[in-house]
Amino acid sequence: MANENRSVWTSISFWRRSAAWVTGFAVILLIWLTFDTLGQISMGTDADLKNKVTKRVPAPTVINYHIDYKYNAKRGHEVPVIGDKQPFFGKEWSEEEAAKLLHLGKLTSQAKNCMDCHTLLGNGAYYAPDLTKAWLDPAWQNGGPLQGMTGKNTVEEAMAEFLQHPSQYPTHARMMPNLGITAEEAKGLVAFLKHMSSIDTNGFPRNFSQAAKREQGGTYAH
Amino acid sequence: MGTLFEPFTDVVPSFFGWLNQGPLTLTIFLHTVIILPMFWIYFQEKKKLNK
Lengths: 222, 51
Description:
The complex is a heterodimer of chains A (222) and B (51). By secondary structure, chain A is mainly alpha-helical. Chain A has helices at 12-41, 46-50, 95-111, 145-150, 155-164, 183-197, 208-214; strands spanning 65-72, 77-85, 119-120, 123-124. Helices cover 41% and strands 9% of the residues of chain A. In chain A, the strands form two sheets. A two-stranded antiparallel ribbon of chain A has the order 1-2. In chain B, 61% of the residues lie in helices and 0% in strands.
């Protein structure tokens, strides 16, 4: 009779079994989520680009295409749209060349420590502008103040020129220092930035285009 | 936005993408799989204590 009044809430085995269940389930869920994410972030192939298969992370040869940033009403933010072929530094890059250039750009971005000041795909600092979608910044396009300032006719040439002589160009309240970036490294960095801008980041950085329009004269995408 | 169920618009189809379409779908799923078994554990323990 007295046993019927014993509370389950004070029973150690109830709490032990509950904790084991919750922990065990969370472990399985996290392992599953890890593999689920791998599918989402794995890089597409050149064939995907040719067949217009949309991937979150396109192949390096995406640098041969025009990249647009369009508002998607269903998703409630802008998404990169890969368009027609567009020469990059005046030529079309093969799969090997594009991969090599992108690799050089990535290594340079690490060697020059871009993330000390800039943000790349959510990693880094906000001392200088967010570079995740820098390639799409209207200021670097034809007629934009940043492209005009370098005297070049394409986005890639303007960016490469700026990267080699950043301290010559007034772009930001906190001007970029000269990092000794060579012409080849600058090409790699621009390819790296173009590829990064083609990655579907679920709209990150939030309201990039509006921010870029609002604050003319720099990649002010916060 | 604002509706519980919306057409699936994720780039790469995935179970969790489908599950996370609305504000409550993931919450309901996690409560189902975590809280409901705890009720079962509770009544099992109660039965054991009463024996």
